[in-house]
Amino acid sequence: MFRGIMMRLSQAVPVLLIFSVMVFMLMHLLPGDPALAIAGPDASPEAVQKIREQLGLDRPLIVQLLEWFSHLAVGNFGESLTLKQSVISAVGERLPVTLSLSFVSLVVTLPIGIGLGVVAAYWRNSWIDAWVMVLALLGVSLPGFWVGILSVLYFSVQLGWFPPSGYVPLTEGGVGPWLASLIQPAVVLALFQIGFLARITRSAMLDVLDQDFIRTARAKGVDEWTTISKHAFRNTLIPVVTVLGITLSLLVGGSVVIEQVFALPGIGRLIVQGILNRDYPLVQGTMLLFGFAFVVINILVDIIYTIVDPRVRYG
Amino acid sequence: MAEATILASGEAIAARRRFRVLRKLLHHRSFMAGFIIVAVMVIAALCAPLTGVDPNQMRVRLRFRPPSEVNWFGTDQFGRDLFTRTLYGAQLSLWIGLAVAVLSGVVGAAIGVLSAQFRRLDSLLMRIMDALMAAPAILLAIGLGAALGPQTHSVIIALAVAYIPRTARIVRASALVTRELEFIEAARVSGASSMRIMFKHLLPNASGPLLVQSTFVFAFAILAEAALSFIGIGPPPPAPSWGNIIAEGRQFAVQSWWIMLFPGFAISLAALGMNLLGDGLRDVLDPRLKVES
Amino acid sequence: MAVPLLEVDDLTVRFRTDAGWMTAVDRVSLAVGEGEALGIVGESGSGKSVTALSILRLHAAATTRMPTGKIHYGGKDLLTLPTREMRQIRGGEIAMIFQDPMSSLNPVLTIADQIGESLRLHQGVDQATARKRAIELLDLVRIPDAARRVDEYPHRLSGGMRQRVMIAIAIACRPKLLIADEPTTALDVTIQAQILDLLRDLQRELGMSVILITHDMGVIAEFARRVMVMYAGRVVETAPVGQMFRRPVHPYTEGLLTAIPKLDVDVRRLPTIAGSIPDPTAVIPGCRYSPRCPQVQESCRRDSPALLPAGPEREARCPPRVAAMAKETVA
Ligand SMILES: Nc1ncnc2c1ncn2[C@@H]1O[C@H](COP(=O)(O)OP(=O)(O)OP(=O)(O)O)[C@@H](O)[C@H]1O
Ligand code: SF4
Ligand SMILES: [Mg+2]
User: Fold this and answer.
1) Ligand 1 pocket, residue C54 CB under 6 Å
2) CB C20 within 8 A of CB C47
3) Which of A77, B18, B134, B155 could anchor a disulfide with A285, C-beta 3.0 to 4.6 Å?
4) pLDDT tens-digit profile of B254-277?
5) C24 lines ligand 1 (CB under 6 A)
6) What is the number of the ligand 1 atom nearest to the C-alpha of C52?
7) Do A219 and C89 touch (CB under 8 A)?
8) Taking the CA of residue B3 as centre, how many other CA atoms within 13 Å lie in the half-sphere pointing to its CB?
9) C292 Cβ below 6 A of ligand 2
10) Residue C171: closest CA among chain A residues belongs to which residue?
11) How many other β-carbons are positioned within 10 Å of the β-carbon of residue B1?
12) What count of CB pairs under 8 Å joins A to C?
């Protein structure tokens, strides 16, 4: 187990290196002078030059790259140009929002998405299956930001059930207001993941139900509920866990967009504002942190996988 | 000569199989539903000029008109006809979706086949793909799109790059299986070039999963493009992209709900159509992922 | 035979296919006495597995209707038994093992759990007792190092070992009847012999009745007392094993026997008889074997033959041959 994790970590190193170089190049090799863009069209040449020096853009690219790496090595992800704070602290401030949103959304997604898939597979080709599949299909076809706006119009403006926007930190108002500020965006965000997971789970479950060992369980006299919940379900989880990384990736990606709709001050908003303000170090640093986070998440998913499937435990 | 005969009979079999696949598709409910939806949307998009209205023409006197016999989808804050704009938006969205699907399909297939054929390239290419997949696809597209500047083609490139890795992995997986088949082994031993093996064997055998994946990418791309436009990283206004119309109409949504309603339906319908097509293709072309119709 | 343990009457099972309803099992009747071993042979697709699965109502529910006919067991009809009671029979009184041991065990559960589940279910023993009994059962099916093996997952075991585990699961609750559907087909020849020996010893020790389904006439000769031959969903002959080998009545049985290969050859498929089994959805008028039968007569293609008595404990579905036999006996 430990050796497996070490191996995954060692594989992650080149991936992170390549990702860092890509993020670096993204901001440096593309057309346009960031300094000019930051200073704005009316800035004096001196001002532009000053920004250029400040960014270190006047030095050879390779020097800049090495410097960027040496900073990364000590955990320095750069300074934001517009926020007057380091990228780490800017991200740190907004991280709880995005984490809270993703967490609540995941808590909504997992039981519903997996549950729907199991139900649809168990009653395959029935009207239950048909309805679940239509819902799942809608989940992966409706644009989340649009559903979010409609949802605000109805549930917040019309009915006044939830606040239309904004975030209440857990430390400020306790669980109630925190959840109230998140539940609507979290559910909207969950729709896509629910559809995605339900579709994956259904086909995984169908495969499992056709397996011989299900027949063995029934031949032992095991009741239907135990057949599904004990014999079929854990096997169904194996392929479902493999897409957990993708699910989380979709979730966080979706939250970037949903944060715009509900004006949640999370990382998604940070990055979009960074882009609109041409705050390149901020965008660069945030992207990089995202990449690092997902490399770790994928390793965690691999670990979960070895727990669910005993066949890879010793491998 | 022997290979020629095998290939000839192989082609006959392939032709017959194509026919069977076609018949199955025609009887597949979700495929046909998706096909009809997409076909109607394509026709509608192509017919956009027939409305005879300029999608960007502003008429201040006609602002915020609710849907009526004249303006089927109403008008927006500048008095532009939303029906016309939605139709032109279909042109834009479908074009972007198609371009992203084709671009990521072609590049992804090339990377997948190359890494399956040349084991030395494999680990490098796959690490690069892993790196591209490190951040969420939509985020990568946002970053790339922002860096490339607000233009239609930067959206296309950004989204294509974001979806290349999965396509590459799918094609590679299929090609690795094909490589182990006996007749490829035989072809290799009898001196067939790498080019020939890649184009004649690995690629055709991966075409089913590739087509399925590209169809889903098409659906994703339509949704992602709308999201990018909504955030402000899409084709710049006044381009009538669906995401733009929703973003612009949002602040008036309480009174003039119709502005953002119809483009949202259009996005949903387009994505739904492509997803249905993808489901049908997967059931028929990719028996490993069989899901009863 | 007094009152048989299990008696199947006119069992008919139909499947919905793309080409309409197909009859996989057509009015099959059979009986198994206490402690008796019945063999069922027939080519692939003749309906052996469907017959066996239907006894426990384990047939694919999605594509069938409820089988028709009667399955008498312990004074009850298994086909109309409430689901609850049926579950008590399954694994408790009638157990089953399957052809492919590689896929018949659940990959994510330990051996202890999979054997113990049966015991907990039918005998209400607790976890610890179930584990102890599981070890004893593994010993009984001759798995070395049982105390260690019991906590492993199936993927650590070979095919032969897994089939032993399947047998352990099946006999865990001392069932009265064991249905073994081609238990050795997927195994190597040497392992096949070991598993058959094991089954035979267990049958004797535990006094079980066994229905053994196989492709292999050699296995039948060794194992069964009576044999039933199936062709295209129908019973074509039943006979005591010795009589059948000495003197097959039905031309199909005869074909199977003459095609017996050398003993030490790996027998996975029945040796071929000229022609092939009919498309199960095809309608063949008269005798279903007539397209392949070397002794076919005009009448065979016209009238659907009935299963006729052909001596004590014998029946065959071939009027010309039964008539010929009767004439011989008289003469
Ligand atoms: N679930 C099902 N749906 C449709 N047809 C089925 C189903 N199960 C079995 N059949 C059909 O019923 C017929 C009898 O099948 P069965 O499995 O009983 O044959 P068998 O004698 O056990 O063959 P084998 O020796 O290959 O195991 C076959 O034609 C098979 O295709
Ligand atoms: S009834 Fe006729 S065709 Fe059928 S087995 Fe007997 S002889 Fe052959
Ligand atoms: Mg069988």
Assistant:
1) no
2) no
3) A77
4) 787 888 888 999 999 999 999 999
5) yes
6) 18
7) no
8) 14
9) no
10) A220
11) 5
12) 72
Q: Which of B55-64, C257-266, C320-329 has the lowest mean pLDDT?
A: C257-266
Note the ipTM here. 0.87
The answer, yes or no, to whether any atom of ligand 1 lies below 6 A from the CB of C248, is no
Under 8 Å between Cβ of B216 and B209 = no
Strand pairing class (C68-73; C6-17): antiparallel
Number of helices (H), then strands (E), in chain C:
12, 12
| DSSP symbol at B288 | G
pLDDT over 70 percentage in chain A: 96
- Beta pairing, strands C177-181 & C315-316: unpaired
Residue C108 phi/psi, 5-degree rounding, is -100, 5
Q: Is A168 helix (H, G, I), strand (E, B) or coil?
A: coil
In this model, does residue A27 exceed pLDDT 80? no
B208/B214 Cα distance (integer angstroms) = 10
Q: Could you give the CA distance from residue C93 to residue C71 in angstroms, rounded to a whole number? A: 14
The DSSP secondary-structure symbol of C311 reads S
From residue A162, give the alpha-carbon distance in Å to each of A159, A166, A178, B251, C52. Answer: 8, 11, 11, 19, 60
Give the separation between CA A256 and CA B233, rounded to whole angstroms.
Answer: 13
Of A219, A235, A310, the CB nearest to C90: A219
Is a pLDDT exceeding 80 seen at residue A250? yes
Length of chain B: 293
A123 interfaces chain C, CB cutoff of 8 Å:
no
For C132, residues 6+ apart whose C-beta sits below 8 A from its C-beta are: none
Residues A167 and A184 sit within 8 Å (Cβ to Cβ): no
**Three-state secondary-structure class, residue C315:** strand
Residue of A nearest to B254 (CA): A153
Chain A residues 285-304 with a CB less than 8 Å from chain B: 287, 290-291, 294-295
Is residue A200 pLDDT above 90, yes or no? yes
Q: Give the integer Cα–Cα distance in Å for A190 and C302.
A: 66
Q: State the smallest CA–CA distance between residue C212 and chain A in angstroms.
A: 16
- Nearest residue of B to residue A298, measured between CA atoms: B134
Residue A20's alpha-carbon distances to A25, A55, B164, B190, in angstroms, are: 9, 17, 19, 44
∠ CA(B81), CA(B86), CA(B88), 5° rounding? 100
d(CA C210, CA C219): 13
Cβ-contact C229, C236 below 8 angstroms: yes
For ligand 1, pick from C16, C17, C46 the residue to mutate: most ligand atoms within 8 Å of CB.
C46
Mind telling me how many Å the CA of A222 is from chain C's nearest CA? 7
Q: What percent of chain C has pLDDT over 70?
A: 93
Partners of chain A (3+ Cβ pairs below 8 A): B, C
Q: Dump pLDDT digits (tens) for B78-136.
A: 778 888 888 888 899 999 999 999 999 999 999 999 998 888 889 889 989 988 888 88
The phi and psi torsions of C70 (rounded to 5 degrees) equal: -135, 145
What value does the mean pLDDT take over residues B232-245?
85
Alpha helices by DSSP H, listed for chain A, are 2-28, 34-39, 45-55, 61-73, 87-122, 127-141, 144-151, 170-173, 175-209, 212-219, 224-226, 233-242, 244-261, 267-276, 280-308
The predicted model scores a pTM of: 0.86
pLDDT at C267 over 50: no
Indicate which atom in ligand 1 lies nearest the CA of residue C22. 5
pLDDT digits (tens, 9 = 90+) for A211-239: 999 999 999 999 999 999 999 999 999 98
Q: In this structure, what token pair is assigned to residue C85?
A: 């009671």
CA distances (Å), origin B55, targets A178, B59, B75? 43, 11, 11
Ligand 2 and C158: CB distance under 6 A: no
